[in-house]
Design a protein that fits this description.
This protein has about 80 residues and is mainly α. The protein contains 4 helices and no strands.
């Protein structure tokens, strides 16, 4: 999802700011909602609830990597501003 969204922004001719914002928002997993749904459906002691709590621990380093990728590749987005 991250690669697809970022490349879409590039080939669509978006400005860097728009492309990286869309990539970060699009690749977010909305873990708050996932935790609430898992606890509601399966209970607080379930494996599904545990998995949704562990997910954000993996998401934060991934999103920081996406930020670093965006900063390194922003020079490839020389778009004219309107």
């Amino acid at each position: 999802m991250i690669t697809w969204t970022y490349l879409l922004g590039y080939f669509a001719g978006w400005a860097y700011e728009t492309a990286i914002d869309t990539t970060l928002i699009g690749s977010s997993s909305h873990f708050e909602v996932a935790i609430a749904v898992a606890i509601t459906l399966y209970g607080i002691g379930s494996g599904a609830a545990l998995a949704t709590v562990i997910g954000p621990l993996m998401e934060v380093p991934l999103m920081l990597s996406v930020v670093k990728l965006g900063l390194r590749t922003r020079k490839y987005f020389p778009r004219k501003r309107l």
